[in-house]
User: What shape does this take?
Amino acid sequence: MNLNQITVPSLNVEKSIAFYEKLGLKLIVKSLPNYARFECPDGNSTFSIHLVAKLPEGDGVYVYFECEDLDEKVVHLKNNGIQFDQEPTDQRWLWREARLKDLDGNQLILFYGGENRLNPPWRI
Assistant: This one.
């Protein structure tokens, strides 16, 4: 199996489209007001948003987007008005991560894992 796409909930798909395009995703399906789908700039995965009447409670969804040039990407996004909850930070699990939320509160993590992405020292 290969991961094809992740879909997250949104209260306003049209506003979310603009946000995700600002992040660098390419819009490939626009079925307003209910759905939109994007290509990720690298790799073959896609990402979509769908209209919901109510957002899930609790922490919700966490979506990780890998960026080899994480620090530069964060600077670029901040210069384009994207706000981050956490600047790029080295984590104890050997990834560097920056965190933000989309317009609906979905947790987005931009990260660089390098070799440790699939092969951390504790891998079974």
